[in-house]
């Protein structure tokens, strides 16, 4: 499953971070997930929580997910807007479909709390 491998790579990088920072444990991690990333948030959180006991410093890490809506800029009128749908968005001002995706595909770590 897609979400499991993403959760694993997050756990691995958190584990490396904990080693590097000589942390006793990671207590909290906040991530942003774009609505267009294709990641099912519930499955991702489930996988993270199921796998974290395998990592000595991550057993109590709390995962907080912030979902980021898709955001486009209209190349015709410069309007920026957010959309809920992923299908054929059009500019909310001039109805152009000449759009550039600004955000919505990301998976990024916002911050990590560790105990040293
Ligand atoms: Zn427009």
Short description:
The chain has helices spanning about 1-20, 40-50; strands at about 25-35, 60-70, 70-75, 80-85, 100-105, 105-115. With about 120 residues, it is of the alpha+beta class.
**What does the main sheet amount to?**
3 strands, mixed
Shape: elongated
Strand-residue proportion = 25-35%
Poorly predicted spans: none
The tally of strands reads 6
The total of helices stands at: 2
First-residue to last-residue Cα separation: 33 Å
CATH architecture of the domain at 2-69 and 103-115: 2-Layer Sandwich
Q: What are the main properties of this structure?
A:
6 strands, elongated, binds zinc ion, three-stranded mixed beta sheet, 116 residues, hypothetical protein PF0899 fold, three-stranded antiparallel beta sheet
Describe the overall structure:
The protein is α+β, with helices and mostly antiparallel strands. The protein has a domain at 2-69 and 103-115: hypothetical protein PF0899 fold (2-Layer Sandwich), CATH 3.30.2320.50. It contains two helices and six strands. The strands form two sheets. A three-stranded mixed beta sheet has the order 2-1-6, covered by helices on one side. Strand 3 and strand 4 form a beta hairpin. Helix 1 packs across helix 2. The longest helix is centred in the N-terminal third of the chain and has 19 residues, at 2-20. The protein is elongated and about 55 Å long. The mean pLDDT is 93. It binds zinc ion. Zinc ion binds next to loops.
């Amino acid at each position: 499953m897609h979400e499991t491998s993403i959760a694993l790579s997050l756990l691995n990088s958190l584990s490396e971070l904990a080693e590097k920072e000589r942390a006793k444990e990671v207590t909290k991690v906040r991530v942003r997930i774009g609505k267009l990333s294709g990641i099912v948030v519930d499955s991702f959180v489930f996988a993270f929580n199921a796998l974290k006991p395998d990592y000595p410093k991550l057993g109590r890490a709390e995962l907080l997910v912030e979902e980021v809506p898709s955001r486009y800029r209209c190349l015709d009128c410069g309007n920026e807007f957010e959309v809920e749908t992923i299908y054929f968005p059009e500019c909310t001002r001039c109805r152009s479909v000449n759009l550039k995706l600004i955000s919505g595909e990301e998976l990024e770590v916002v911050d990590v709390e560790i105990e040293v």
